[in-house]
From TrEMBL:
Principal place of residence: membrane
InterPro entries, per the entry: ATP_synth_csu_bac/chlpt, ATP_synth_F0_csu, ATP_synth_F0_csu_DDCD_BS, ATP_synth_F0_csu_sf, ATPase_proteolipid_c-like_dom, F/V-ATP_Csub_sf
Domain (V-ATPase proteolipid subunit C-like): residue spans on this chain: 16-74
Biological classification of the source: Bacteria, Bacillati, Actinomycetota, Actinomycetes, Micrococcales
Name recorded for this polypeptide: ATP synthase subunit c
Record site: Reversibly protonated during proton transport: 62
Amino acid sequence: MDVTNLAEIAGNLNTIGYGIAALGPGIGLGILIGKTIEGIARQPETANQLRSTMFIGLAFVEILALLGFVLALIS
């Protein structure tokens, strides 16, 4: 194997790694939003508090997705 083939393999592994890393935040967003909607349905008077907490959690989950994307491009 020469260096060109190794670089191609590493690039392909980075792409596959990011694809797998994107699953975590996707699942996390689904759970986060679903539980927030469930909480609002159960206690509508706490809607504003739950919504603001959801947006903070959403930011953390999106940071993880972007971090995975950047690391896939750096490697």
